[in-house]
Amino acid sequence: MKDSPPSNNAHVAQNTSARPAVDLPRILLAIGTQLLLIGGSLYVLYPFAPALIWGTMIVVATWPVLRAALRLGRDIRVGLEDTVVLPDGRPASGNRELVEAAVRLVAEAS
Fold first, then answer.
1. Contact call for residues 92 and 84 (beta carbons, < 8 A)
2. 41 three-class SS
3. What pLDDT, in 10s, does the model give residues 84-93?
4. Which of 11, 25, 50, 87 could be bridged to 63 by S-S, CB 3.0 to 4.6 A?
């Protein structure tokens, strides 16, 4: 058997515990790009935020506010301009269904 040349395995074994190289500029560029995309998306959505908040609150708060008004002895009114859902969360088919639900609320409060 021939003698094989000395290998560099000792050198390889020493470098296995070394940390891998980090490409910091590339990482920072990727993070900066993502932040710009997020910021741009929020900038585009900003004009719609008040309408989204209003629409969500109207759907969520209408029936509890009507119940509170009845407890205080106030008059109530309801229509599709106020909410589009019934007290049980189903979509209303029209004003008539909403008014019927409000009449039931008044009857329950009496």
1. yes
2. helix
3. 899 998 999 9
4. 87
